[in-house]
Amino acid sequence: MSKRILVVGGVAGGASSAARSRRLDENAEIIMFERGPVVSFSNCCLPYHISGLVEQEETLILMTPEKFKGQYKIDARVNSNVISVNTEAKTIEVENTLTKEITTEKYDALVVSPGADAIVPPFKGLDKIDNFVLKTVPDVSKIMKFVKAKNPKHITVVGGGFIGLEAAENLRETGIEVTLVEGTDQIIPFVDKEISYFGQAEMVKHGIEVVLEDLVEGFDTKKVLLKSGREIETDGVILAIGVRPSTGFLKDSGIELTDRGYIVTNDNYETTAKDVYAAGDAILVRNQLTGNLCPLAMAGPANKQGRLIADRINGREIKNNGYIGSGVVKLFDMNIASTGLSEKMLKDSGIDYEVVYAAPPGIVGIMPGAHLVFSKLLFEKKTGKVLGAQFAATGAPDKRADVIATAIKAGMTVEDLFDLELTYAPSFGTGKDVVNKIGYIGSNLNEGAFKQVTFMEVYDLLKAGEQVIDVREICEYEEGHVKGTVNIPMSVMRDRLDELDKTKTVYVHCRTGERSYNMTLMLQANGYDVKNVAGSYEFIKMYEEVSCYNDKAREEIMIGDCVDCCGTLEKAKL
């Protein structure tokens, strides 16, 4: 007798499980229930329909019930909301959202991948303003109709995560003025704050106002009311505050849920009920590096989970090594990618770690499109085990994050990174790739070859009267420098050592950290207490620019702006 497999949810996890189940069992009866009007759509591409980058709404829909039936012999039922599960009787109740008719379906195996709902708090006055969420094709359709009908001049986006950022970018691309409001002290929550500044600077550069550490208190007619007392004049609001698992229908089902509504599963994605499996945004996954359980609302992991569940249903052994979390976001011309643990996560992990900051060139400096790749690498002290990385660049930071993701999954160390043989041609990289370079730096730090402070400490060091030396060439310094630093170029440093106070620590920076590292070693050899400024001028410049934007009372310490001036040494290297 053939199996009857029911699937709740028709997007990543559910659709993957259904399709894989068919490949493994041609005779199984597979029915997939989707509460919305479309099944298997590209929810990650929804914001790009707003700007017209994805022109036709129909292209957002990857599969239709007819295609599922014809290609996979899967019965995909839209407008079908599963309202309850009886795990003892092995049945579900399904409500047709159009006719309100309720039917009961039996299962041999049940896959639950319902996704998550957008959080919409009961804000006072929400009914007084046009407001939207952005989770489904109907959601983006409503936004498009609003834009076309009312021609808004300004829209406020609430929330600085993936959806909020991409909604803000694509609204701005249409010429609409945008204010983004985020309640915490940074946007882009999957990276550390200082790396998020690269994204914030790019948004501000393109005319988006970013408001941090302020909460929405309510709304009025064409107004957003903030807790600080500020009122934002606006024509509409997109709420991208966050999501909660869509698991209300599992109450009293015998399937265990966490306090926040996530489905409890084991490493085989089995729930606490027999023959019931769960995947996607509604479950917690185990972090490979810490062992902690955490939500991971990503399409890639959900697709993998769906496949593994199908394997399990069909009697196959599966391997779940846990997840590390890898993501990337495009904000106009700046791309920001991350993988593994962030420093925020590491501070609570008990792991003794070290940080590398560097800004190597993404491709050969004399090639068109030359750019820096602002890099942050995290590794475990002593063992050198790679724990995480974040990259920001106008080029391809994702490919560096992907290499690091592979390294993390393989348990590699910083020494392994500089040993990697990566592709090179002038248009694609450099002879020492970004990954190799941060591996070298990490290895040097792990060996104790030098000491460092971060670019974020320079402001306070200068306020305290410490000696901070800029070893770039004179022309670079004159174009732009940090107020209070002293310029002694690398090319003449050995002849001017008598200008340094040997009784005080010497802090050294250059443009990206390479020349200052060389001078740090030279000064160490000459008996100085010296520390390299990790990240150097390029990181300092970005950090101070955004810090002053966020804190109007902060003193500006950047003078001028050296933008690849003087044909720097880094640019000449092949």
Describe the structure.
The structure is a single chain. The protein is α/β, with parallel strands linked by helices and 574 residues long. The chain is built from 16 helices and 32 strands. 28% of the residues lie in helices and 25% in strands. The N and C termini lie far apart (66 Å). α14 links the parallel β30 and β31 (530-534). The model is unreliable at 568-574 (pLDDT under 50). A 5-stranded parallel sheet has the order 3-2-1-7-18. The chain is globular, with a radius of gyration of 27 Å. α6 (193-205) packs across α15 (536-550).
Task: For this entry, give a set of tags.
single chain; 574 residues; alpha/beta; five-stranded parallel β-sheet; 28% helix; disordered C terminus
Set down the secondary structure blueprint.
Layout: E1 4-8, H1 12-24, E2 29-33, H2 46-51, H3 65-72, E3 75-77, E4 80-86, E5 91-96, E6 102-106, E7 109-112, E8 116-118, E9 131-132, H4 137-150, E10 154-158, H5 162-173, E11 177-182, H6 193-205, E12 209-212, E13 216-220, E14 223-226, E15 231-233, E16 236-239, E17 243-245, E18 276-278, E19 284-286, E20 293-295, H7 299-313, E21 326-331, E22 334-340, H8 343-347, E23 353-358, E24 374-380, E25 386-393, H9 397-409, H10 414-419, H11 434-446, E26 452-454, H12 458-463, E27 467-470, H13 474-479, E28 480-482, E29 486-487, E30 506-509, H14 514-525, E31 530-534, H15 536-550, E32 558-560, H16 569-572
Parallel strand pairs: 1-2, 1-7, 2-3, 7-18, 9-16, 10-11, 10-16, 11-12, 26-31, 27-29, 27-30, 30-31
Antiparallel strand pairs: 4-5, 5-6, 8-17, 13-14, 14-15, 19-20, 21-22, 22-25, 23-24, 24-25, 28-32
Helix pairs in contact: 1-7, 6-15
